[in-house]
Amino acid sequence: MDAIRSAGQGPPGMTGSTRTPRPPGRPRSQEADTAILTAALDLLIELGAAQTSIEQVARRAGVTRATVYRRFAGKTELLVRALELANHDHDPDFTGWRDIEHMFGDWAAHLAVPRHRTLLRRLTGTVDDYPELGRTYRLVNGGQRRAYVREMLSRARDLGELPTDVDVDVLGDDILTGAVLNHLGTHPDDESADEIKAYFMRIMKQLGYRPAVTKGRQRI
Amino acid sequence: MDAIRSAGQGPPGMTGSTRTPRPPGRPRSQEADTAILTAALDLLIELGAAQTSIEQVARRAGVTRATVYRRFAGKTELLVRALELANHDHDPDFTGWRDIEHMFGDWAAHLAVPRHRTLLRRLTGTVDDYPELGRTYRLVNGGQRRAYVREMLSRARDLGELPTDVDVDVLGDDILTGAVLNHLGTHPDDESADEIKAYFMRIMKQLGYRPAVTKGRQRI
């Protein structure tokens, strides 16, 4: 009850929906949860995990510190939950890519958004102090998506677009993950999705990738 | 003069050399510099740039905060100088590698030291808040070393160990840098140098690398 009252002390600050009547079954406390998790994610991106405090999250969410502590055991749990929410919001109906070109186009579109880039860098930068954050991200992103990457690479191999002896695990887990990390660390944040996709295709070319349409001009 | 007196207020805490007479021409203020820079590098590795303060550096170096501020404009300059020192200490006579195997053996030996791994992760994690740190590291490490990497890759291509159409820039700058970043982020810190070298060789195999000695069994 206290939590509900506390949540009412300030605007959730999420959407303009506070003006419209709340639908039944969506309690006030869920609005506070969303406001807190959104504030936590924003601060994680802006300041990083180390510089984010429960106090700042409460202030930005428009709730008291006590409200935050009643819902989350501490900063790490709060940030982990914020990451989970961020991910569930991102394309929940995703069922895979059509082919390799489609996959890299999707990756490039994601990496062309500066906010996504900063979040990914924040996560890789927290390995030593907040290992739970990186683990959460890998769990949410790693499971099904990783299987789709392998499927795309295996299919390309079967189509003759990749060498028959390609190791899809080394390619997917090590080389392509590394290519993403390298792009985040060494390329400017204002590259377009087209430029980023071209970056991935340059790398794939070095791995022997030759799109089926230009197969006649393969490998010298 | 003040700086010299301040430096005398506490032990530099570097080596046991405070007991032995200082050689002529090595002023006390250089000892304080070294103590400050060593403390700064240690704290950068232990806590990260955001959590490191001038006050902590001064305390660990055994000098006053004023001494640190007289020598360095602020935290960023201090950390940049500490990084430069760390790098100059690391194998100043380095003139390149014999071949690719030697190069990856050297990288693996470096990456098998947890302290090196943490420092590299700290640097990649500071892109958004302390871009000068990453820039410094790339300047010191990037220039000559990058040229050596290209030379090794070009030589391997000329020996027939890499495909004739290999792009040594994409391979060196993007794929291999990415492979290092991926290892730092996704592999445990207790892997041996042998295991890490094997990781690089697995990646090189996907890039068509076939060592000259086993050339008869190349590519299926």
TrEMBL record, chains A, B:
Residues 1-30 are annotated as: Disordered. This is TetR/AcrR family transcriptional regulator. Residues 53-72 bind DNA. Residues 30-90 form the HTH tetR-type domain. Keywords: DNA-binding, Transcription, Transcription regulation. The keyword DNA-binding applies.
